[in-house]
Amino acid sequence: MIRFPEPWGNYLLKNLAETTAPNAINWWPQTIAWQVLFVAMLVYIGFNVYRAIKKYQNNAYRREALAWLKKLPPYRINEPDTIYRQLPSLLRKVALSGYKRDEVCLLSNKSWLQWLDQQCEKTSFTKIPSFTLNQLAYVPAYDIDAKTMDNLVTEITLWIKYHRGLHD
What we know:
The protein is mainly α. It contains 7 helices and no strands.
């Protein structure tokens, strides 16, 4: 280490005593108001996390139904796949998962389609030829063109995504 010569620096500061550094600042809030605010924020965050988890759990039926719809093969009019016959029952199962059983079970035909439209503003099952869902469910040899089937699958997908159930 190199030492400077003795007359180096300010002569007035030669006998000045060095001060000690202050203690580190404590990050824990000192007043009760900040502690209450901190606890309130923790409760609020915890409550929102709990609600998000419950919403995720309550919407499991939606995710399963949408995953099933994504796996549908392309519809061909000359050789229709029997998996498309399950669309009405899928829609009914989703409705039963999201609403009270006694509200859903008694609905059929036009009242079923109107109820579906009432539960979701983005769909219009009553504007699709109303026989399409019934034809898929009950008619042994159904004759539905590809465009109508695509529209029906789109409406079902929209209804599953955007309907407001009991837990929403």
